[in-house]
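batch_manifest entry 22 of 60
target: Acyl-CoA dehydrogenase
source organism: Streptomyces morookaense
requested by: lab member K.T.
priority: normal
notes from requester: please return tokens only, no post-processing; we will run our own comparison against the previous entry in this batch. if the run fails, retry once and flag.
--- input ---
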Amino acid sequence: MRMSEDEVAGLVRSRWGELLAEVGDGAVERYAEGVPVPRRAFAAAGALGLQAFALEADAVTWGRVLEEIGYLCADPAFATVVSIHTGIAGLLRATGDEHLADAYAVPISRGECLPALAFSEGTDLLSMRTELTASGPDFRLTGRKGFITGGLLADVFLTYAATGQGDLAACLVAADDDGVEVEPAHAAGFRTAGAASVTFEDVRIPAARVLAPADGLSHAQQYLNARRVVIASFTTGQIRRLLEGTVARLRETVRYGQPLMDLPNVQAAVGRMYIAVEASRAIVHRALSRLDAGTGDPVFDPVVSAAKHHVTEQALAALNEAFRVLGGHAYFGDPRYGMFLREVHGLLAGAGTQDLLEINLGMCAATCAARKGGNPT
Ligand SMILES: Cc1cc2nc3c(=O)[nH]c(=O)nc-3n(C[C@H](O)[C@H](O)[C@H](O)COP(=O)(O)OP(=O)(O)OC[C@H]3O[C@@H](n4cnc5c(N)ncnc54)[C@H](O)[C@@H]3O)c2cc1C
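--- output ---
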């Protein structure tokens, strides 16, 4: 039977609460210096069964776990990075390939091997310059990828490359393979997520590490589709955290003899933040339920994309309310508000830009409406 919201909250606190508090403790200092979450945090999470839990849980339960992690952990990068690890492990396990499972998915699930997605290279999807070419029984990989979340921490990259036949292939590259060079990226936000770029210079890729020799685009889209609802899940928890932090501050800030929280305009702002939280939870839950029921489209599910889009916009709206009612405190007094502001702006582009999601959703909605033949107006 599926766990209730309260049961999930209790589980996360009892099993991983201490670790999340530890990771959160150093977040502000790490953020200022651009130092990633320490590798040992992922190993500790693995020892406590977090990543393995993700691989066994249904989508709704894992989504709720991520919401709680987003809510409890003061370092927003932890949920971001650990969920990339579990997403890639899930993809590897789904191949049914024993070598990929034993060599990568199992160590990832223990926090002993850290993966990252190296997809983007500052081109459109049809113009990727990274190339994978056959060379005897193996392949050779040459190119450069950027904007890689968790890239500085990564032991292995899931990457995509043109095959020369107008197609993309998916393969795994080890960070210590000859010809691989990882460099830090200077990111506007997610500064504890170890952002990096990676260069592949004639890297030998054994055939066993080629996950998808063709149609890598669909492969990547499946990963990104699942990624969208994961982002929406932990961001919902982070909006809850923002709401509670804002209320705590408003209660203790007195102006002209009364706490700010007692002023009706401030109450209305907090009310709008509350609506943002509940609306986010509702759409995320619906998207996750579709995945569990098997009714969602694994490549581009409209509800999943709507959830990522909606939660991102709700997070921006909630931040706007918080910055208005907290006065200078949010700007000067507590760096965590600025951190979240920067992270959420990253979601405007990450896992599909908001604009492109809108275009695709518009096309989906039009097709769906035409198929039904109805005219609700
Ligand atoms: C915080 C963050 C984390 C990320 N993590 C990773 C990661 O771990 N691994 C990875 O590989 N990548 C990662 N990325 C990269 C991310 O996937 C890309 O930024 C995203 O796909 C957009 O691509 P782009 O940056 O080239 O933007 P562009 O494609 O240049 O888009 C710029 C603008 O043009 C619009 N546009 C583009 N094409 C069209 C079109 N056909 N029609 C209409 N409008 C269009 C877009 O909507 C957008 O408004 C990350 C990005 C961010 C911000």
